[in-house]
Records
---
Amino acid sequence: DTFEMTAPTAYLPVEVDIPEMLFVGESVANNASNYATVKTGSNRVSVSASKFVIHQMWSGEMEEDSIIPFVPFLRRQAALGIAHYSDSLVLNGDTTNAGTGNINLDDADPADTKHYLAFDGIRHAALVDNTNNASDAGGALVIGDFGTLIGLMLDATRIHDWGHPANQDDLVFVADPQTADAAQQLDEVINWKTYNNQFSILNGE
C-alpha cells in the first residue's frame, strides 16, 4: 500500500486491539441498568519524510565517446540502486549515528549520508527495540528455526497472531543469500519442491 505525504510529518491510523465480548444477564425490565462498556482501541503512528538523492555528473564528451548509450545506462543503474537501497533501508535501517552501536557498522561511526540512517528498520525491532523478538539459531539451520520465529510473532496483548495469517503466502521469510541457500538444502524444502502441494513443511508432518 502507498499513501501521500501531505506534510513533512504525517499520521496514519492503526488498529490496536479488539473489543472484549462480555457475558451478562438478560434484561428483565425496560429500565434495567446499562451494561458495562468496552473500548475498541485505535491509535496513530507518525511517519516523517526523508530525502534521498543519487547525485552524478558527466561531461558531454563522456556521453559522446561512450561505446554504449550512456544516459540510458545511468538511468538503468539508478533504478537498480533505488530498488536495492530502498529494500535495504526497510530491513536494515538504524538511526544510531555514533562510533558504536549501529547494527550495520557496530565498531565505527557511519558516514552521515548512509541510507540506513533515515529510520529504524525491521531488523532493528528485534536486535535493539525488543530482543525477545530475536532467535539465535546457534548452529546449522534446521526447519525448527523457522517455527521458533513464527512463535515469536504472537502478540498476546493485542490478540493477534502475525505468524499464522489467513493466507499463508502473506508470511515471508527474508534472509541473506547464505541463509537462503542453506534453507534450500533442508529436507522439508526439497520435499516441497519435489512434490508440490504434498509437502510436510505446510501440512505439519
Note: Residues 70-92 form the longest helix (23 residues).
---
Amino acid sequence: MPMPMPMPMPVRRARAAVSAILFAHGVNL
C-alpha cells in the first residue's frame, strides 16, 4: 500500500521497514 512521503529520502528505509515488518508478520502467522 503506497503511502505519501513528504521527503524522498526515507522512502527506501520506509519501504524496507514495511517489507521487513510484513515478512516478520507472515513468518509469525
Note: The radius of gyration is 11 Å.
---
Amino acid sequence: MTVRRFYLFLVLWICTLIDVETQRDSGWWECQRPTFDNGYIVPRREMYEHGSTVQYGCNPTYKPIMEPWWGEMTCRNGVWSQTPSCIDQKQCGPPPIVPHAKPLVSQETYDDGLKLRFLCERGYSSGYTIYATCENGRWTSPKYNCRAQGRPCLSPPPQVKYAVITSPYQSEYAEDSKVVYECVRPYKIDGTKESWCREGKWVSTPRGCRKYGCDVKQEIYSTYNVQDLPSAVFVAEGESHLFYCKQGFRWYNHTSRDYQDIAEGQCKNEHMIYPTCDYFG
C-alpha cells in the first residue's frame, strides 16, 4: 500500500468514526438508501436522516405490492417503516380480508388468473366455497361470508379481578370458541384459566386471581439473627427481599463470597426462606 493510499484510507476511517459519534450524540440513527428490484426512490440519496420520508415508484410494467402506483416510507431510527417491493402489474399482492376466514395458501404475491380459496375458522361455516380470483392485478370480491355455527356469545367474557384476556376483544364469539385469562403479578389464576362459549353463554370461568407469594411478618424469629421489619411485607413468588443483620452479626454471600450487613431471603413455593446472619465479633 502506497503512502497516498494509506492516508486516504485513514481519512475515510476517521470520517466514518465522526459520523458514527455524531449519530450517537443525536440519539438517532440514519437509514441507508433501500435497494430493491424494478423500482426507484425519490429523492435519491445514499443516507437519510431520522424522520425523513421518501416516495418510491416502479419501472414500467411493474407496480408497488401494496399501494396503487407509488409508495411512501419513513426512516425511524435507522429502520425504514416498510420494505419497498415492485411486482408485475398483472400479479396481485395480499388477498382481501374475509371475516372469520383465512386463505388456504398464504404468500407474498399471486399470479394472474389464480383462484384463491378461503377456509372458515373453527366455529364458523359458509355452506359455499369462498374464493377470490386475481384478475389482471386486482382481486375479485368474495361472494360469501363465514357465519357462526350454533349460538354465538354476543357479550364479552366475564371479568375477573386482576386479570386480562390474552386475545383481542371481539363483538361476537363463535360457538365452542375459548378465551384465556392471565393474572397480573403477584396474582395467579385460581382454577381453570379458560372460558368457553357454549350455547350463547360463557362457561368454565376462573374462580379468580389469588395472591401468590409469601406474607412476611414484622417480627422475625431470633434464630435468624436479623432485625425486625418496620412493617409486614408481601414478597411475590420467586422474588427476593433484603433483611438487615443484627448488630455484631453478618451474612455470608455465597455469590460474592464475602460477609455483608444486608442479607437476602427468597420466596419459594409460597414459603419464605429466611437468611441466617452469623456472629461476627
Note: The first strand starts at residue 31 and ends at 32.
